[in-house]
Amino acid sequence: MESQGGARHGVEVRGLGRIEVGKIVCVGKNYREHLKEMGYAPDEDPVLFLKPPTSLLASGSVLALPAFSQDVHHEIELVLVIGREARGVPEARAFEHVLGYAVGLDLTCRDLQKRAKERGEPWAVAKGFDGAAPVSIAVPAQEVGDPADLAIELRVNGVVRQSARTSQMIHGVAWLIAYASRYMTLERGDLLMTGTPSGVGPLASGDVARGTIERIGAVEIRVKDA
Ligand code: MG
Known about the structure:
Elements: E1 10-13, E2 17-20, E3 24-28, H1 32-38, E4 47-51, E5 56-58, E6 62-64, E7 72-74, E8 76-82, E9 98-105, E10 108-109, H2 110-119, H3 124-127, E11 133-135, E12 139-140, H4 141-144, E13 151-156, E14 159-165, H5 173-183, E15 191-193, E16 201-202, E17 208-213, E18 217-224
Parallel strand pairs: 3-15, 5-11, 6-18
Antiparallel strand pairs: 1-2, 3-4, 7-10, 7-16, 8-9, 8-15, 9-12, 13-14, 13-17, 17-18
The protein binds magnesium ion.
């Protein structure tokens, strides 16, 4: 499988060209209905975890399911592309650091994640495999405007699996940038994945998964066995 081409790993920002991606910071537990379906307490704090840039996959690519998992789940998410270094950024200034928005999938080996949770281990292998982060072409932030209430939907083979609005996030985009940048510096080219709504479920060989977010676009992958 090939990650998004060109020098190193990157995403295309419409009208601005390609930007090299550093780290991918992901937020977990940010939609109430998803907390419910995963059996988390309703008031649990969001969790942050990382995917490596090697997990990036261009929209339109084929995903080879990792041989070490029997249960790879789709999680559609709004993705922020960071444009300017953010360290300890207050919420009121958070949007100054957003270059653009994309549609992403936080693909997850649910079986490995479950085992990691039971053992108190990190989620790195459950979340960081090659192709675990399919991402669409990004749209410049000013073209999207306020991302606080956009329709977000994922279909597998044309059937709706996840459908929500970004207004259902527990913590909005500005809050998440402030929160993440307290713990680690966000650099130009870093991505921030903002959590998934409910309806997560498994992908199988032959499936076509297509995620869309209003005013941003679509990410689509075709799934095959390793
Ligand atoms: Mg997720």
